[in-house]
Amino acid sequence: MSLRRRMVLAFAYVVVLVTVVLGIPLLASVSGRVDAEVRADASGQAHLIAATASGLLGDRPALRASLRSTAADIGGRVIVVDARGVLVADSAGPRLEGDAYGDRPEIAAALRDGRAVQDTRSSDTLGEDILVTAVPLVDGGRRVGVVRVTQSTEAVRAEARRDQLALGAIAGLALTLGLVVAWLLAGSLARPLTRLAEAARRVAGGDLTVRVQEEGSAEQREVAHAFNDMTGRLNASLNAQREFVANASHQLRTPLTGLRLRVEAASLRAQDPALRRDLEQAEAEADRLGRLLSGLLTLAREGEERPPLRAPTDLADLAEEAAERWGPAAGARGTAVVADGRGRPVVRAPAEELDIVVDNLVENALVYAPEHSVIRVGWEVRGTTGVLTVADEGPGLSPDDAARVFERFARGSAGQGTPGTGLGLAIVRTLARRWDGDATLENGPDGGALATVTLPLHDAPRQALHRDGRDLDGSLPGGA
Ligand SMILES: Nc1ncnc2c1ncn2[C@@H]1O[C@H](COP(=O)(O)OP(=O)(O)OP(=O)(O)O)[C@@H](O)[C@H]1O
Ligand SMILES: [Mg+2]
Predict the structure, then answer these.
(1) pLDDT score recorded for residue 274
(2) Residue 221 above 70 pLDDT?
(3) Pocket around ligand 1: residues whose beta carbon is below 6 Å from it?
(4) CATH of 229-300 given 1.10.3630.10, 3.40.50.1580, 1.10.287.130, 3.30.830.10
């Protein structure tokens, strides 16, 4: 689960907990409080009318108006009855005036005992539960009547429900706000971590120049700082190693060339055939060592900033020249090297480096495919990439080989019986990737191995100059 989701959940848990712990007792108390408030209000109003009504008994319209305004205030009905229980004034209008109300229990009790009565009972007239408040009217020490206030208990309950709903809405709002704040906070916490992970992935992919922004909390800034520090040191140490390998390889090449020349001279002078054979083998070993040093030099340059491209390369020309170059060596084994492709892919990579690529691939085909076979060097355009292929009729790759032949010093099953350093394909891939391309080796559709190198096409192939200065326009399809 993501950090963001965890934090939102934790926040939600806290907010819900607080809401439940505080809200439920509050909700429960609300209905009781509303009920008590309504009762107290009804009683207060009834007393107030009782205090003024006795003076208004002679002025019915004024009394009715006073009852109406109180009834509207408290949301109920207010009546005044005289000492016999006959309705004198009614907030609902004069229609029922003169009716006998003495049988109503609260009115009877107030008249009998001379004290205020408050009760809930069901009303036969209205067919629902009502809250009744009856207060005796006293004038000069005499009981002259009763003021009665009636309210529907359903209305009281509805008011309590409204309050409860309002409380629920506030709790919901608090929860939503809490979650939004948690979401934003979690985002600000997670963002530096996501950036750090992205940077770590780029470092793992070989880019040691990445640095992360030191942002966020003190702890996050510390981690970012430590990461930058570590990557910087790693970069410096890798550069030092690379430089060392490059220098060592370079320095070793001069004495090696001297050694090779001396062995060659000695083998030419040797009279003894056995000695001559030994010296020729020593020469071959020196050659191998020379190739190894060149390979190490190339690989040591991996990760260095690539030089600016002086001219793009036409893969068709490159393949044809390679076929010509390798013709004699292949012919000695009865093998043919055929250049055969489609279109004219002009790619964004220097010919010197692509020559090394194609040479390594053709050399492998020659070494690992049987004598008297055919090696095809092909090319084509696929979308925005140029493709160079080398196909042979050899044993191809075992599944085990396919996974590791591009590793440095890795030799596959076909390579077991032949001398080799295991650097050829590593160099091919390094050079292809240096120019934003890639290299693969797989089994061809008709057996044998199929090496494929893909490289981005040069943006403006029509204006491009080939490596030996020829204007490509002449050689392009539809070119001038
Ligand atoms: N055309 C091919 N057919 C079959 N196997 C191949 C082919 N090309 C490469 N391989 C396998 O891949 C391995 C690695 O090849 P790579 O060119 O990297 O090194 P190498 O040929 O062994 O040595 P060198 O560094 O001298 O080229 C080889 O040992 C071989 O097993
Ligand atoms: Mg090889």
Answers:
(1) 94
(2) yes
(3) 360, 364-365, 368, 392, 394-397, 401, 405, 410-415, 420-426, 441, 449
(4) 1.10.287.130
